[in-house]
Structures are given as C-alpha cells and as structure tokens.
Amino acid sequence: MVDLVHKNHVLISVFSRFGISLGFGDKTIREICQEKKIDLQFFLEIVNSFLDHDYFPREQLKSFPIRLIVDYLTKTHHEYLTKTIPEIESVISGREGICYKDKEHNFLMNTFFQEYKDELITHIKREDEQVFPYALEVEQCYLQKKSAESLPDKFRDYTISRYLQEHDDVEEKLFDLKNIIIKYLPPPKNPRLCYRVIVLLFNLEKDMNDHSRIEEKVFVPKVAMMEKVIRRKNSRQ
Fold this sequence. Notes:
Blueprint: H1 2-7, H2 11-17, H3 29-36, H4 40-51, H5 58-62, H6 66-92, H7 103-143, H8 160-166, H9 170-184, H10 191-236
C-alpha cells in the first residue's frame, strides 16, 4: 500500500474516499480492503485509473454495482465540499495573507471563486439529491426484474438522458477561474501564496476530470442500459 502513495501522492485523497487513513504500516492492499470491507477489484480499478491517465477500464467498471459507483462519487463530492473547497477558500479569502497589493484584485479573485463555488455546490446537490437516488432506484428495479412502473412517483418521468442535458460543465468554469489568475490579474504581491492557489486549483481540476470520466463513461451508460431494460418491460405489459 505504501508503494502506491510513493507512486502518486494524489492517491491519498482517493484512499480517504474509501475510508482508508494513513498509518497502514506494512499491510498489503488486499489486507486493508478486507479489513475495511472494500471491494478489492473496484478499489484497484479506481486506483489504476488515477495512476495512469491512459488507463480507463470502462467495461470493467461497468461490471460493478451502481451502489458502489454512487458511494464513491458521493464521497468524492463530500471531500470537495468539506476539505478541498474550504482549503482553497481559506487562501483566496486572505485568511493566510493577501495575494495582490491592490485590494480590488484580491476582491475580484475571491468573487470569481465564490461564483464558481456556488455553481459547484448546486451541481453536487442536484446529483446527490436527485440523480444518484434515481440511479439506485433504477438498479433495484433492474435487479428485481420489475418495470419502470415500480419506480417512485418522483422518478417516473425522469431519465438519465435528462441528467446529461442538465449536466453543466463545472470543469470549464474552473479552467476560466485559473485563466483569470494566470493571465489577467497583475503580478502578485505574494507569489508563493498565489502559486499555492493555482496549484490547488490545478489539483482540483485534474481530480474533477477523473471524477467526470467515471460519471460520463461508466455511471451514465450503466444506468441507461438498466433504464432501457425496465422501461421495455412497461411496453410489454
């Protein structure tokens, strides 16, 4: 397990989403997964996709239950809201010093970040409160060989394609925020602090890109497949 951290320290945040903390000694990946009751193969596929950007086991990940995928995505959301965003906000807000000599530029950077934060919270809330519960209900119907009529009323007219239509590009907005700092704001008064902000934003962007790949290439196609089956049952009745 230690070797994984040495290969890529970013995996520490991935570990936390599985409930794995540092201090695991010489335990192997298998031992830790058994101890934490983690699906070993699912854990390995997620880790490998982070270690190698060219490696993305779309078909393998689709073989796992939606509940496993949703649990991972939900915990990632929780990490963004409770750790990643507050850390960036602490630096940008000036609690650790100011990046720019002119107060107006510090205010602008903070304003742009707050706008991005609000959009991200809205995006996450929609997925956590509507999309993921819908996917779990679809999976239940699919596994129990029931039709879409068995879905709760609030999900009866919802489809995963509707989610894709509503899926806003928060990664693009994050890129815009980075570009404002790098390209348009003046040279900072505190370069080291400003550099820290940029590094944190780049790290978040990379993590969110990986997160979106799982949503768009694994989660959505799997739900769409099950959705098609249970809605086909309706037409036969």
